[in-house]
Write a structure and sequence with these properties.
Layout (H helix, E strand, L loop, with lengths): L1 H13 L3 H18 L17 H32 L3 H5 L5 H17 L3 H16 L13 H30 L2 H22 L5 H7 L4 H7 L5 H6 L6 H24 L8 H12 L14 H20 L2 H20 L2 E2 L2 E2 L4 H33 L3 H5 L5 H33 L7 H30 L2 H21 L27 H24 L9 H11 L4 H26 L5 H15 L9 E12 L4 E11 L6 E7 L7 E3 L3 E7 L4 E10 L4 E10 L18 E4 H4 L2 E2 L10 H6 L29 E13 L3 E3 L3 E8 L2 E7 L4 E2 L3 E5 L2 E7 L2 E7 L7 H18 L7 E7 L12 E5 L16 H11 L20 H15 L5 H18 L15 H19 L1 H15 L9 H11 L6 H8 L1 E15 L5 E14 L5 E4 L3 E8 L7 E9 L3 E8 L5 E4 L14 E3 L1 E2 L3
Parallel strand pairs: 3-12, 19-20, 20-21, 22-30
Antiparallel strand pairs: 1-2, 3-4, 4-9, 5-8, 5-11, 6-9, 7-8, 10-17, 12-15, 12-16, 13-17, 14-15, 18-19, 22-23, 23-24, 23-27, 25-26, 25-28, 28-29
């Protein structure tokens, strides 16, 4: 009998189109991701192949989420078919075997649910064959297929996930006899997946997050997080580690649920509704008195009809069990997100209102959309399912009234949900002792970011249900419009918000600048889509199916005959207004502010290089002096600029022209003596001014550039965040045309370059011992200037403070505006910022240096800590590296449209999302403020006093040195050697994860090519570990002497090779291998604590015996690894606590064999033992370095 039921499920489903639609859909999605560069799902960029095992695994795991919803249909059908057809009583009266019926249905549905997911493999294989054939993607970006890729993915993800999900869905369907409840169960699984994502956002919770994910996706992401490109191309997911443990846990859970469901299942139907029906029969026998009715049809009756329909629909949703469950789910999702806090390096931010609305928008919005999808179908089909539609449809009412009531019920539902979310946010703030509750921000954000979006989707989804006239197909179409339509637009590289329903520019809220520069555009796009939604509803009202079900064609014919005369003007009037708004939006976003698609940007960059690369080595004059006059108009978002540059010919030949790159958003005009425009390419923004008389070597002239930026209308995106109402932040590269051919405008990704017939681009010039040309320019200004004097006169509105680098030499007020004059204290790199906002100012003086923090009044809580951090940095750096070269030191807050900090001469802008809002009440040392401030302060030495030549290794001299300096500042105040491990683990994670995202080739540290994961993560680890091995003073002395030699020196600029000479002198011969392993090569370690035991001694001490295993690994640029002989000094240590905070014993030992053992005595009871206890060595799996120490008897 099992075989009969099993095969019946299979055969019955194979006769239906649903399984083939699902299969085709998943195949199409993965085909598009494989065959098009416009869709990025699996991370197939750079050196990672399009069909790499890792990429296919990502496709598979992601698609199992979609497969879950498809599986729900198969399991529901298997569980409920006999009940829905009312065949159960007949079938169950026959001599059936319970196990055969139950498990035959279940496993039939299980097999069916896996079949659509085979489409992932089909789409990948077909895409891999078709894309090269049609020339969409080059053949060398595809590799071989491995049968293990498909089998392992099937047995690790597809089959287990469908079994686990199926057990839950099948159980719910059998218990509740409800398709809806079982679909809700599927959503509960998705919620679990989202919550697990919140957990792994904190590095300390990765294991918990990996094990709590039903799908196993998080477990695989942790399992593969340190994969290099070569490993992504070759390694298949394996049955091991966290991934295997996750699968075993959840398969066991699924098995237990399935067993419990089987034991609960009975052929004797237990219908609790019988009693309710008996009660209703008794009630129905009571005498009913028909009320007297007064018949009338006027405007008041229309309003009463609308009100009646609205209340009936709204209450039907609110009382619905499914809504209550979905409401609970969304609440759980939001609350778990709030409890998780707002992580930054393991620390939480204060619960500012904008943090809360971010969390609400991020966690709850998805479920609100799901609720809208579901109940749009429920409302349209409610009367038909209750079989009262013919009665209601026969009543004298306008169809539009009913549809409008249903739509408003959905919209009202979103208001109810949002009020609850806001209440959760407010309560979270109060519970955490935060009392600056900004209710207006909550409600305005809801209106701008969500309410109008929900209203638009409500109208569109109601319309879809009316037009399709099938609830489940309507659901499918709604989901396709929400999710799949955006993918289709990506495939065709269409990014206009005019084609993406209910979309528009971001209205990200900032405490400094409210809802930002995108608000006007967002409102216009919302108006555009609201009118579109109303138009859809009006059309749906005309095509509403009243009475018996009719086809769309039949309803169209009926509508032409029966639609009231005053209805058509309403449709045409709304359509006319929508067309007017469409024209206005189109004019602003396509004509007044035209934008380019990704393909257009790529084509433009390729054309720029092909046409103007020939000018790359054309000799150009250098800027040696700069004077800026800038007028900021923040409330109009306009800028007027005048810059006077003194330029000189420092070459040995004549210069007959000057080349510029011009930004079309600005309107520059040039005043250069005896020069005129000889060539202009407005499309590319390339301009050449020729001299009537060439500049001879040593000649100096004055060049004046005037420019203007005027904000016009609104853009397809948020628009410029540089010039805004409060928090303007611009730099000189944005304000002015750049000199000469700009290689930074070239395409960089090798596969993209190949698409446009361009040779691979050298990321940075090769490091040379005796360099000439490349050492004459640094990587900041690229040869356009060296260390120069500059001054700025900057004006802004009367309620704001304007800031530029340099000391403030003059301030005055004129014509209702504030004017400031700044001049740098020392020649500096031509790298300047211009900032304006309403600021509070905190001041302090340290040894004659003015420390100033310009901050928003709402963000005052950490200001004293920030001033302390600046002082600590100044103290450590001046003592160890040399004097600070400015009279002032400013930290300036800017809005959170970007999350970074940056160092200009004596001036350091910080995003409001960084240290200003981090909760440091319980952090007395090693906090994030010290980390970020110390890093940017260090740039006043590393990047400003000394800057590297434009070649490999340059960013080691700035970013690695600054990161090391920051770590040493924190170490100087640390009370425990283990505290620093908390920071080092983030650096390890940053470096090891970054290797997997490398798009070209990983370089050794001394050859870093502006690769952030190397110069930040690895650079910090290596330099910090080195000072631990050879001594802090030696490393700092090498850096100081190097700085003294090259500080503010004109070209040639120093290279990393120059620094290595100083460093090598400080490293003893016994440790010289560290230079090779850590700086010159890519070296990893695989250290493991194999055994750790202790025995109590008679003298009260404890003898500890450790067995370790150590491997040293050399990697190439793609991640290929080779074991090499180990002969290294490595620490071993013992902790007295489980949290590894108290290091009882530590000793550096020589490891010359892969397996070794050590014994030693300690004074206190040992708890845990570790090799490399302070995380100084780069080890991909650090967890196996540590082991609990077990007691043994001697």
């Amino acid at each position: 009998m099992f075989k009969h039921f099993f095969l019946f499920e299979i055969k019955n489903a194979l006769k239906q189109p649903m399984i083939y639609i699902f299969l085709g859909l998943l195949a199409l999605l993965t085909f598009g991701a494989t065959a098009s560069d416009n869709i990025q799902i699996g991370g197939s960029v750079g050196n990672v192949l399009r069909n790499a095992p890792h990429v296919i695994t990502v496709y598979t795991t992601v698609m199992t989420i979609f497969g879950l919803l498809m599986a729900a249909a198969f399991y529901n059908n298997a569980a409920l078919r006999d009940f829905n057809n009312e065949f159960n009583e007949i079938l169950f009266s026959t001599p059936l075997k319970k196990s055969s019926y139950f498990f035959g249905r279940f496993f039939g549905a299980l097999l069916l649910s896996t079949l659509p997911l085979i489409g992932v493999f089909l789409g990948t294989v077909i895409g891999s064959l078709v894309a090269p054939l049609f020339g969409w993607i080059d053949a060398d970006r595809f590799g071989n297929f491995y049968i293990e890729t498909f089998t392992n993915n099937y047995f690790l993800f597809i089959l287990p996930n469908m079994f686990i999900a199926g057990s839950i869905i099948f159980a719910l369907a059998n218990i509740w006899k409800s398709t809806v409840i079982s679909f809700v169960g599927a959503l509960a699984i998705i919620i679990g997946y989202i919550i697990s994502g919140n957990l792994i956002s904190d590095i300390d919770n990765e294991t918990l997050g990996a094990l709590s994910d039903t799908f196993g996706i998080r477990a695989y992401s942790i399992y593969s997080k340190y994969y290099t490109p070569i490993e992504k191309n070759t390694l298949n997911p394996s049955f091991s580690g966290l991934l295997l443990l996750n699968r075993l846990i959840w398969i066991s859970v699924g098995g237990m649920i399935l067993l419990a469901s089987y034991l609960n299942f009975s052929f004797q139907e237990k219908n609790k509704r019988v009693k309710k029906q008996e009660k209703s029969i008794k009630k129905s026998s009571e005498k009913f008195i028909l009320p007297a009715l007064e018949i009338g049809f006027d405007r008041s009756s229309v309003w009463l009809q609308f009100k009646s329909f609205f209340m009936m629909n709204f209450l039907s949703i609110v009382k619905n069990v499914t809504f209550k469950i979905l409401f609970l789910f969304s609440a759980i999702l939001l609350i778990t997100g709030l409890i998780g806090g707002f992580e930054y390096y393991g620390l939480q931010s204060y619960p500012l209102t904008y943090k809360l609305i971010d969390d609400i928008d991020g966690n709850a919005t998805l479920f609100v959309i799901i609720i809208l999808v579901f109940f749009s179908g429920e409302l349209i089909w409610r009367d038909r399912n209750s079989k009262i539609h013919e009665v209601i449809d026969a009543t004298p009412h306008i169809s539009l009234i009913s549809l409008a009531a249903k739509t408003l019920s959905l919209i009202s539902l979103t208001i109810l949900l949002q009020l609850f979310f806001i209440l959760c946010g407010v309560l979270y703030q109060l519970v955490n002792g935060y009392f600056r509750i900004e209710l207006e921000v909550y409600f305005l954000d809801f209106f701008y970011a969500n309410f109008l979006t929900y209203a638009i989707w409500s109208g569109v989804m109601i319309t879809i249900q009316v037009l399709v006239n099938n609830k489940y197909i309507g659901y499918f179409v709604s989901i396709a419009v929400i999710f799949i339509w955006s993918i289709v637009l990506e495939i065709f590289d269409i990014s206009s918000y005019m084609l993406t329903i209910a979309s528009g520019p971001s209205t990200l809220y900032s405490d400094m600048n409210a809802f930002g520069p995108g608000l006007y555009g967002a409102m216009m796009f919302n108006l555009y889509w609201i009118l579109f939604s109303i138009l859809c509803l009006l059309i749906a009202g005309a095509l509403w199916n009243r009475g018996i079900r009719n086809s769309l064609k039949t309803r169209t014919i009926i509508a032409r005959k029966q639609v009231p005369r005053n209805y058509r003007p309403l449709i045409f009037g709304t359509g006319f207004v929508w067309i007017l708004v469409t024209i206005f939006v189109y004019y602003n976003t396509q004509i007044l502010n035209p934008y380019k698609t990704n393909d257009e940007y790529e084509q433009m960059a390729a054309d720029y290089e092909k046409q103007y690369k020939k000018y790359q080595n054309v000799p150009l004059p250098k800027i040696i002096d700069a004077k800026y006059s800038i007028d900021l108009f923040p409330y109009k978002r306009n800028v007027d600029l005048k810059a006077i540059f003194k330029i000189v010919n420092e070459t040995q030949i004549q210069i007959d022209s000057v080349h510029f790159n011009v930004d079309k958003d600005w309107s520059p005009a040039f005043d250069i003596p005896n020069a005129k425009v000889v060539f202009e390419d407005k499309k590319m923004g390339y301009l050449i001014l020729g001299f009537d008389k060439p500049m001879l070597p040593g000649d100096t002239i004055e060049m004046t550039i005037t420019s203007q930026y005027i904000t016009k209308g609104f853009k397809n995106g948020r628009g410029s965040t540089g010039i805004i109402n409060n928090g303007t932040f611009l730099n000189n590269f944005e304000l002015l045309p750049s000199l000469g051919y700009d290689e930074r405008k070239e395409l960089s990704e090798k596969n993209t370059r190949k698409k446009y017939d361009l040779k691979p681009k050298i990321r940075m010039p090769k490091l040379e011992i005796n360099c000439e040309g490349n050492c004459l320019r640094n990587y900041l200004t690229m040869g356009t200037s060296d260390y120069i004097n500059f001054e700025t006169t900057i004006s802004t509105s009367s309620d704001q403070i304007a800031i530029a680098p340099g000391s403030l030499t003059k301030y005055w007020e004129e014509k209702g505006r504030n004017y400031y004059q700044y001049k740098v204290d020392h020649p500096s790199q031509h790298f300047m910022s211009f900032i304006s906002a309403k600021y509070e100012v905190a001041k302090r003086k340290w040894e004659g240096i003015d420390i100033e923090i310009y901050y928003d009044a709402k963000h005052h809580v950490n200001i004293e800590m920030m001033l302390d951090a600046v002082e600590r940095s100044l103290a450590y750096y001046t003592e160890n590296f040399g004097p600070y070269m400015h009279k002032h030191c400013r930290i300036i807050e800017f809005p959170r449209y970007a999350t970074f900090a940056q160092a200009f001469p004596g001036t350091m802008p910080y995003s409001e999302a960084l240290g200003f809002v981090v909760n440091l009440e319980d952090e007395t040392e090693n906090n994030v403020i010290d980390a970020v401030i110390a890093h940017e302060m260090a740039h006043q030495w590393w990047a400003h006093q000394i800057v590297g030549a434009h070649m490999q290794g340059a960013t080691m001299l700035s970013e690695s040195f600054s990161e090391y300096s920051a770590l040493m500042t924190m170490k100087s105040i640390s009370k425990s050697p283990m505290k620093m491990r908390e920071f080092l683990k983030y650096d390890h994670n940053r470096y090891l994860r970054g290797r997997g995202g490398e798009i070209e080739a990983e370089q050794p540290l001394y050859k870093v090519e502006n690769q952030s994961y190397i110069h930040y993560g690895k650079g910090a680890i290596i330099l910090y570990a080195l000072q631990d091995y050879i001594g802090e003073k030696k490393v700092n002395r090498a850096m100081r002497e190097f700085l003294e030699e090259y500080k503010y020196r004109p070209p040639p600029y120093p290279t990393s090779l120059d620094f290595m000479k100083y460093l090598e002198e400080e490293v003893p011969d016994s440790l010289h291998y560290l230079i090779t392993d850590w700086f010159n090569e890519i070296t990893l370690y695989d250290n493991r604590m194999k055994s750790a035991v202790y025995a109590p001694l008679e003298n009260g001490k404890f003898e500890v015996t450790l067995e370790i295993e150590s491997h040293k690994i050399r990697a190439d640029s793609l991640g290929n690894e080779t074991k090499i002989d180990i002969y290294d000094w490595i620490d071993i240590g013992v902790f007295t606590d489980e949290d590894e905070e108290q290091l009882l014993y530590q000793k550096r030992i020589l490891i010359d064999k892969e397996k070794m053992s050590f014994s030693f005595e300690v004074d206190s009871l040992p708890m845990r033992a570790a090799i490399d206890p302070r995380m100084l060595l780069i080890d991909r799996i650090y967890e196996d370095n540590i082991k609990d120490i077990k007691m043994v008897e001697l």
